[in-house]
């Protein structure tokens, strides 16, 4: 099994890939999210892993846009990874001697409380990823530290100065596993899809959502994104309980197709249960 993910190694994306595969799997870090998609589409790999949603920051726009506009791959699984940030340095560096902090902008924003209290006068240097931050900190001749992942610290056998410095311990990122086909029904599934209104008029969205309500199908998520056509045109993205091959769900999706402008199913897959 070959699995592509958004690199470099040591990131939360690699952690999600490792959760998906096993000891016999091969893992391929890619430079961008579209590159992960292309690797699966061309069968260079079997599966691709992409982040799709963060509990604090919301949807990952690039992943959604690729699913909506650029690929026919299906979601076959979801993985939820806790987001934990560590302050890591070389063995001879202590927290009170740190001279510079390498960090990606996202973990920096998510760890403001610790940085302001424990490293208030330490300048920060922007890095392309949490893994790159650690590599650059370890290569710096100064007493440098990095805001990075436990996974990256363990890979580098680096010195962890502080654990779990994130402001919110409930921070989670949901990753989706993409493949040519989605998963078979398990009895505890969800389906992700998008649709557009056939006509922009009052009640159009209500009519579409009422189909699921009348069928007794729960919507666990709904959001909208620009359709990238005319100003004011939107795509609606929903996650519903159930597998698309279940009779009740299949009938609801068929009714939706009759009144919607476009319907695209991203896939049916087992719910993540930890």
Automatic annotation (TrEMBL):
The keyword Repeat does not apply. The gene is pheA. SUPFAM superfamilies: ACT-like (SSF55021), Periplasmic binding protein-like II (SSF53850). It catalyses: prephenate + H(+) = 3-phenylpyruvate + CO2 + H2O. This is Prephenate dehydratase. GO terms for cellular component: cytoplasm. Keywords: Amino-acid biosynthesis, Aromatic amino acid biosynthesis, Lyase, Phenylalanine biosynthesis. It is an enzyme of class 4 (lyase). Residues 193-270 form the ACT domain. GO terms for biological process: L-phenylalanine biosynthetic process. Coiled coil: none annotated. Gene3D superfamilies: 3.30.70.260, Periplasmic binding protein-like II (3.40.190.10). It comes from the Bacteria. Its EC number is 4.2.1.51. Pfam families: ACT, PDT. The keyword Amino-acid biosynthesis applies. Pathway: Amino-acid biosynthesis; L-phenylalanine biosynthesis; phenylpyruvate from prephenate: step 1/1. One of its GO terms (molecular function) is prephenate dehydratase activity. Residues 2-180 form the Prephenate dehydratase domain.
